[in-house]
Amino acid sequence: MKRISFLVGIAAFFAFLFTPWTAPFTVAEDNVIKIGVIGPMKFSHGIATWTGASIAAEEINGHGGVTLGDRKYRIELVKSDSNEYLSVTDAISAMEKLITVDKVNYILGGFRSEAVFAMQEVMTDNKILFMSVQAAHPKLCGRIAEDYDKYKYYFRIGSLNSVYLGELSYAYLALVKEALKSVLGIEKPRVAIQYEKAVWADPIVSTAQKRLPELGFEIVRVGRNSATATDVTGDLSAIKAADAQIIWSGGAGPVQNVLPKQWGELEIPAALVSISSVLPEKKHWEATGGGCNYELGLCPVGRVAITPKTIPFYDEFHKRIDDYPTTGGGIAAYDWLFVLREAIERARSLKSDDLVPALEKTDYTGAEGRIVFHPPQHKWPHDAIWGPEYITYTGAQWQDQSLEIVWPDGRALWGDERWKGVKFEGTKPYKLPPRMITYWKGKR
Amino acid sequence: MSLAPFFADVRALPIVTVQPPLEVRIPAEGRGRNGAMFQMILINGLVFGGVYATLAVGFSLVFGVAKILNMAHTGFYMITAFLMFVGSAVIGIPLLPSALLSIFTAGIVAIICYKLVFDRVKTHEIALLIISIALAMLFQEILLLIFAAHYRNIPPFVPGYREIAGLRVSYQHLLTIGSTVATLVALWALLTRTRLGDAIRAVAEDSETANLMGINVGRVCMITMGISAVLAGVAAAVVAPLFTVEPHMWVHPLIMILAVVVLGGMGSIKGSVMAAFILGFAETVVVFLVPSGGYLRGAVSLGIMVVVLIVRPEGLFGVVFEEERL
Fold this sequence. Notes:
Chain A is an alpha/beta fold. Helices cover about 40% and strands about 20% of the residues of chain A.
């Protein structure tokens, strides 16, 4: 009898522990909307996300906050370190804590696709709006098409998904191809693909192996390195041995500093084109010892007037943390809070379920560009549309310690005439590394 | 590298995507312009091997003498790199004096850690192992607090590169190979030509008898710890300019030197050096011949270690050279 009582007591304890006594928190308390900002907060991407969100929150609160009926709500941000570079489990725990302990209304952030896939499950368990700023795998939105009711709470402004990033990098390759043809007379450049082994990069690499030959390139090597690789001199040696004229690289880990550093030190005579989350950081020059000079690659935003809001945000961000807001997380977080405010005022509700259809109607011009989401019927619902009339991103090249925007350059993109004339004030021309010109002049 | 994914919630399992098979590509003599693939593998293998050997020697030394599996060894390597960065880039001390100061400081820190931590638990091997890992993580977290996770750069001692058999090798990489040789020669001289070296070898051979012979075993172990950290510091001085400096830089080298010392035979310095070059070449072969599987180069090295251990559990040189351990 005693034993039965004991077991019943234990069972009751666990039942108490796991019973969801409280409903998911969707109603703001005390005229405050709490937003959990989650990301790798010891790294530049997390810091950028927090800074971008903070600037937006201050601006919104300074202008009266979010209006809902006759009530005004101020935005309060709660910072959470996901540690997702090192541990997906930590990211899950951090998100759960934001919801259950900090009792946030919505979640903003996420960086690694591997972590965000897992965080989406926390989102579905709690039916809470998850505003994504960096993770690029297309399936993060593809899941919404597969199971709309379960995953509908997920929306992404940044990063562009990796299929778009691949298309974007073809734009950068177009710049290089044009330069190789006009300066060196090379008609069919040889490309070495060197991407980190990561979930977000797999679709890019597999697609590229079909697309690049169609676009007039010859692929001479396909290399995949670990994101935490500390030495890529072997890869660079093999790339030079393969006579590559372009190194097309991609990654988000520390290797994206190591590769340009060693590329520059060894003066590899190939143009470096990167889809890299660290290329547009101010510290990239310092971290590579200047080796990144003439590296061209992804830059979500530069100090050019993409919209009237871009440069004021850029300058404010730079003033706060002495870095460029050029990693996608910062500007996406900034635009997200304004998009959210509009959606709340449109839906006249704070509940995540009511905000979903309101967000689907978003057509907002932010600092990053015109933000419109793909509709529910699309293969990537709730994903920000990339295009000349929408979010464009830019291409940036390090030129003698200065990060210059070199794309869009006003030319049609691989026959897509919609890009003709799209060029922001302050854009400079792309330059081939001088050592490349010296090495390849007269050779093929 | 984190083991967290193995214990993660099932919802953390990655979405499976279909991958093309790994392609073993034997380049057609570098398109007929740069033939020398074998020479490239040889040179790159020497470079990688030199890096691992420089790191592994100190690790092997402290295990051989003090029987401490010091997982914080690469933590001292990381501390030296950061001190070099602060000295040269922040304070403005020239690079060589900055390196020497940093190496010396790492040695002092190691001796302090030995007196305060390792000496108190050295009879409990598991506790020692766990504490050394905790120490390394403590170093990481302190550096994260001070420096955040930004990547830093240390300029090379000798900038530039040299073309060898069609391969561009930086002078810093060549310096790494040279420093490995110099380190081993210096260590050999210390161990065979000095009284301290005699004491170190005696303790490594039989600490009880050494104690009975009047050798202060505790002091010898402490000094060995300092020497080991100095060796890690030397490794940092030559290797850190090749990479970037950041607070997680201790993890990957630790895994590799564990593979090196286990493969070479625990406590055998000679074995560690040999194993370092074996694994360095293994990684280079993967990078050159299976580029799409380049991310597996660490796994290939560890796989070789496992295979060798199945065949020869004491490591390649664990028994045969036991009498020559130090």
